[in-house]
Design a protein that fits this description.
This protein has 13 helices and 13 strands. The termini are far apart. The strands form two sheets. The chain has an eight-stranded mixed sheet with strand order 3-2-1-4-5-6-7-8, with helices on both faces. A five-stranded parallel sheet has the order 10-9-11-12-13, with helices on one face. The protein has 427 residues and is α/β, with parallel strands linked by helices. α7 runs parallel beside α10.
């Protein structure tokens, strides 16, 4: 049996994949409501079908528990807990440390422990290793095995299945690596071995920094081209036809989610220990975090053109989740936009069927409990301006075009709609 610790966006699909392939999975989480949901065959993540969970539970290859002492029943333990930034935007690996502390006393000799949470190089073989060794009285690489393997989950992408995404794996020792490869080959088609846990940790950071920097580049070009009267979306579509040396990235209202806005700063922090600067990462962060201000500036201009001010106008933010077709609103720029518009005196509402009620968040507590507006002509047309922040596929953009007199589109979602000239601003 294997244990998956942390049954969130990463741990749950991974556990389901193992279970589907006949491996017995014990899901462990500190959140009793998730444990209860799984054992009852229910899903708490929009894009994960409850039937998959029910099938896994029925086949007795998946059960969930809050009892971490049951790690002793497992041959392998995979850790998928959060790795956020603290309020000073420094890595917060406390979830990893707490998990390590809670499993260490229950580790058996020969168990494999794999960390999957995105983090800076050295976390596995320094911090996690130290906690596991002191709590278990055993030595990593000798009495138990230790490895790092980053998750490559792409929530909301229907063609992204755990089994077909190659899994990078680094072990503390060659034997640790072999054990980790054998584990993952029970769930995925391809394992990509690297020389160490640090190389595997660094691989994940490269992947996410690559995205952050390239998104910043198109965001910067969007602003420059807008000043020149050129549509960045048209330019990207044309550039995409180049059959080599180009990969499209798309602009937006800012970065969101638990990965791209956060992970690059894990490396920035660690690099300081080695007196290394991370100028690309910092610059990309600066450009991406400035995007909501640019969007708000566009709201000012669009309203101004029709003789209105932001102060006193009703603005509807369409899309609260950070990306299309998911219910995840962690770090979503939509909330930043709502904060800024409300601070300028706008009356702000939002529409998002994936997030019907705003949950409590640390940075935006004032929106907790606010509900999505209803989707009908009377409601939508009562707003002076609609701001598309996330382009969910379940929004009827033709109706939006018919019902709203002024739209700011940060996602090129209105491209197929019959909009009147001056009705839609791309931003
Ligand atoms: N969400 C993604 O698309 C994605 C993609 C790749 C990598 N990652 C990385 O994977 C890691 C997990 O992300 P996520 O999106 O699944 O987070 P999540 O918040 O969805 O899930 C984390 C789970 O861990 C549980 N948890 C917290 N503390 C715990 C503890 N001490 N013991 C056991 N469980 C605990 C939480 O209750 C929650 O269910 C992060 O490091 C993230 O950067 C996420």
């Amino acid at each position: 049996m294997i244990a998956i610790l942390g049954l969130g966006y990463v741990g749950l699909p991974l556990g389901l994949q193992f279970s589907k392939n006949g491996v017995s999975v014990l899901g462990l989480d500190v959140d009793q409501s998730k444990v209860d949901a799984i054992n009852a065959g229910k899903s708490y993540i929009h894009h994960i079908d409850a039937q998959w969970i029910q099938d896994a539970v029925d086949s007795k290859t998946l059960e969930a528990s809050c009892d971490f002492s049951r790690v002793t029943e497992c041959d392998a333990v995979v850790i998928c807990v959060p790795t956020p930034l603290n309020k000073n935007r420094e890595p917060d690996i406390s979830y990893i440390i707490k998990t390590g502390e809670s499993i260490a006393p229950h580790l058996r000799a020969g168990t494999l422990v794999v960390l999957e949470s995105t983090t800076y190089p050295g976390t596995t073989d320094e911090e996690l290793r130290a906690v596991l060794e002191s709590g278990s009285g055993m030595t990593a690489g000798k009495d138990f095995h230790l490895a790092f393997s980053p998750e490559r989950e792409d929530p909301g992408n229907p063609s992204s299945r755990v089994s077909i995404i190659p899994k990078v794996v680094g072990g503390l020792t060659p034997e640790c690596l072999e054990k980790a490869k054998a584990l993952y080959l029970q769930a995925v088609d391809q394992v990509v071995p690297v020389s160490s846990c640090r190389a595997a940790e660094a691989t994940k950071l490269l992947e996410n920094i690559f995205r952050s920097v390239n998104i910043a580049l198109v965001n910067e070009l969007k602003v420059v081209y807008a000043a020149m009267g050129i549509d960045i979306w048209e330019v990207i579509e044309a550039a995409k036809t180049k059959p080599f040396g180009f990969m499209p990235f798309y602009p937006g209202p800012g970065l969101g989610g638990h990965c791209i806005p956060i992970d690059p700063f894990y490396l920035t922090w660690k690099a300081r220990e080695y007196c290394q600067a991370t100028r690309f990462i910092e610059l990309a962060g600066e450009i991406n975090t400035s995007m909501p201000d640019w969007i708000v500036h566009n709201v000012f201009q669009a309203l101004n053109k029709v003789g209105k001010s932001v102060n006193g106008s009703r603005v509807l933010v369409v899309g609260l989740a950070y990306k299309a077709n998911v219910d995840d609103m962690r770090e979503s720029p939509s909330l930043v936009l709502m904060d800024k518009l409300a601070a300028f005196g706008a009356e702000v509402g939002y529409y998002d069927t994936y997030v019907p009620i705003v949950p409590t968040t640390r940075e935006h507590p004032q929106w907790a409990g606010v509900k999505s507006v209803d989707w009908n002509q009377e409601t939508v047309s009562s707003f002076d301006l609609c701001l598309i922040a996330t382009a969910h596929a379940n929004v009827n953009y033709q109706q939006l075009s018919d019902w709203s007199s002024l739209i700011i589109d940060t996602r090129n979602a209105m491209k197929a709609s019959n909009c009147k000239t001056d009705q839609v601003w791309k931003a």
